[in-house]
Amino acid sequence: MKKNPNDVLKKELVYFLLHSDSSRKSYVKIGKSDSESGVVQRVKGCQTGNPVKLILLGYIEASEREWHYHFRDENIRGEWFDFNYASRFISQLNLNIPVSILKSYKEEKIAHIHRKILKIKDQMDEDRNNYHINLDDEEWNKQLPENFAEELKEIGSFKEDIINIENIKGQKLIEAYKNWSLKNTEEGYHAYERSEQVHTDHRKEALDNMRKIEKIIYFLHKGIDPDKWVGGLEIRLCDSKSTFFDFFNRVVNPGEYYIKVGDYQSGYSLESGLCIYKLFLNFMNSRRSKTWSKFLGGVDIKQQEKHKKSLDDANVEYKDDCPVDITKKLETMGLKSIIDDIKYDIDTKLNIRYFDKNLSVWRNKESEKDLEDFLKTKTMQKRVLNETQ
């Protein structure tokens, strides 16, 4: 999607509101407001009359129109979208959470624990009324540790949980809220787990190979230019000022590094750059005339041994200690595999390859005809030989 400069510079708070019922599909509302308090009011307005508790996942500074356009195929109605698809993107965002929402989150968590404590105490009081009604308060308190050891231990554990929740502040509170909100659905849970586990490792690996990634991206956009091979002003590493989608629809958050291409915020996230780098290496390794690569830094002996094993497994002969021959053989095998797959599909569509229900096997008319012609020829040759003798 071509970006309008005004969309990039326009400040909107885009919020994500989750509607999730365990017995139904999950949806997310993507709306906008001009302030944090406005986001909170929008949430309250949507909650009114809705029997299912709505969860504010958070908000970012971005363009509402851009997010609606990105999820247009998953639109259910108005500003509501299918959360199953959107969760993989939302889980990557550095979401802002309103202070009042964080406060309510802590209060609800503490209130929930208090209800558990009251339930245990009610059970203990019921036990007293049924079996120990004759005991006064002093005698009852003396027997509590002996008769209700497990219950008192559980109450003590709950009180520790309350203290821990009360002490959560700042960024830890925000992370706890995000963890809780995104894990309210199965699709959100898996997206959150993947994002947390993979994103950090990919970013680190991308930064370690940043110079090579910039070279390859420059090559893809500009072609080989010896004077500008290391990159230029138009393609460079910089930090994002707001949230946006890169060329591969990966999310780039404010403050994150990305490879900028052209004007405004067009470019590649670090993860996308890393994918391009690895794909480029794999392509070069499959096409090069010898096992030498400036990106790998020399002759790759392990790769050569791996190639030899592949050829040995396929019973293909090759020249010993000849990287060129090994690589060409593998390229030919790969090409044959592609052609075989295409012919397989064509034969099936033309019914040349068909399933014999009587024999419960797949058969090929062309192969059977070739075999039939071969047997006829052999029979004829044998007859002629016998006659001449």
Question: In words, what does this structure look like?
Answer:
The protein is an alpha+beta fold. It has 4 domains: 5-97, no CATH class; 100-167; 210-279, no CATH class; 288-345, no CATH class. Helix content is 58%, strand content 15%. It is built from 14 helices and 14 strands. The protein has helices at 5-9, 36-47, 64-70, 83-90, 99-131, 137-147, 149-167, 170-182, 186-208, 210-222, 270-287, 301-313, 323-349, 365-388; strands spanning 12-19, 27-33, 54-62, 75-77, 80-82, 235-239, 244-245, 251-252, 257-261, 267-269, 292-293, 298-299, 353-356, 361-364. A 5-stranded antiparallel β-sheet has the order 3-1-2-5-4, with helices on both faces. A 3-stranded antiparallel β-sheet has the order 6-9-10. Helix 4 (83-90) runs parallel beside helix 9 and helix 10 (210-222) packs across helix 11.
What is the structure about, briefly put?
The chain is built from 14 helices and 14 strands.
Helix fraction, binned, reads 55-70%
Average pLDDT reading: 78
The coarse silhouette is elongated
Order of helices and strands: HEEHEHEEHHHHHHHEEEEEHEEHHEEH
Number of strands: 14
How much β-strand is present in the residues? 15-25%
How many helical elements? 14
Q: Tell me about the biggest sheet?
A: 5 strands, antiparallel
Helix/sheet category: alpha+beta
Radius of gyration computed on alpha carbons: 33 Å
Tally of distinct domains: 4
For the termini, the CA-CA separation is 81 Å
pLDDT < 50 stretches: 1-9, 226-232, 289-298
Strand order of the largest sheet: 3-1-2-5-4
